[in-house]
Amino acid sequence: MRTIKTVLLLATLLSGAAIADIAVVVNPANANAVSADDLNRLFLGRASSFADGSKATPLNMAEGTAARDEFDSKVLNRSAAQLKAYWSKLVFTGKGTPPKELADDAAVKAAVAADSSAIGYISSASVDSSVKVVASF
After folding, report:
1. Where are the alpha helices (DSSP H) in the chain?
2. What is the pLDDT of residue 7?
3. In this structure, are residues 123 and 10 in contact, taking their beta carbons and an 8 Å threshold?
4. Which of 18, 30, 70, 97 has the largest CB neighbor count within 10 A?
5. In whole angstroms, what is the distance from residue 39 CA to residue 45 CA?
C-alpha cells in the first residue's frame, strides 16, 4: 500500500514538472525587447505600447488552459481567481478591458504572425519560424 502511495505521489510531482515552458512571442518584424515588467504592464492593461512607442496588442490563451495558468502564475504572479477579480473591477468601472483570448497555441501563433503589434505566449514546444521568442518562463 505504501508503494502505491509513493508511486502516485511521484507521478503527481512529475506531471507538474512535465508542463512545458512558456515562450512569449511577437511577430518576427517586431524588434522590441520585452522584460517581465513590460509583460506585466501589457497583460494587466497598464501599458498599451512597446518600448519604441508602437502599439502592443496582448493576446491571452483561453482561461483554464495549462499555458494560461503557467503564464498567470510565473509572469503576472497572480492566480486565475485574482485576475478574474482584477479584470471584473476594471471592466465594471470602465477603466479597462482584458486581452483578447484565443483557444490554443496555433491560434495565438497565427494571430501573432499576422499582426506586428501582437504579443502572446505559447508552449515552447509550439514555437516555429512564424513567430519570434522574446522571453521564456
Report:
1. 2-17, 36-43, 66-74, 80-93, 105-114
2. 40
3. no
4. 30
5. 10
Per-residue tens of pLDDT for the chain, all 137 residues: 544 444 434 444 444 444 569 999 999 999 999 999 999 999 999 999 999 999 999 999 999 999 999 999 999 999 999 999 999 999 999 999 999 999 999 999 999 999 999 999 999 999 999 999 999 99
Superfamily for domain range 21-136: Periplasmic binding protein-like II (3.40.190.10)
What's the residue count for the chain? 137
Cα–Cα separations (whole angstroms), residue 48 to 40, 118, 119? 11, 11, 11
- Return the domain boundaries, the chain: 21-136
Which residues lie closer than 8 Å to 108 by C-beta, 6 or more apart? 25, 59, 61, 102, 120, 121, 122
Instruction: Enumerate residues 6+ apart whose C-beta is below 8 A from 37.
Output: none
